[in-house]
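user: can you give me the structure for this one chain? tokens are fine.
assistant: on it. calling the predictor now.
[tool input]
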Amino acid sequence: MNLSTPNREKYHSYLKSYEWHQKKCEWIASGRPAFCFACEKAMPYVNAKGFNFHHRTYENLYHEKLDDLIPLCSEHHQELEIEFRVIRNHNVDLKTWTYVFISMVRFKKGLTAINKSKISIVMGDFNE
């Protein structure tokens, strides 16, 4: 997301807010997979430091639906964001890049493909 300075400040404040914390709790309570979708590292329940929720889309920013979010460990979240800054210049949208990135990491690690794993319920098909 290319945020201008005022929006960046608002966004980072939001990520520290009670509302964002509640969104994380909603994810956990929903029974959705609680691990990094890229490497399957378990999400810590007590202290979520080092674990992020990646926005597949910013369409509903500040009022996200759970389907807008993907849990990622901090390592893979940072890597996805860095690589997206390069790839977005080639007209690749964030939702598509998220799917491709996670698929590539899972392939490299020898993990089950998205469409054959528990995360397919959240990620859907690539052709959506």
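assistant: here you go. The mean pLDDT is 85. The chain has one domain: 5-123.
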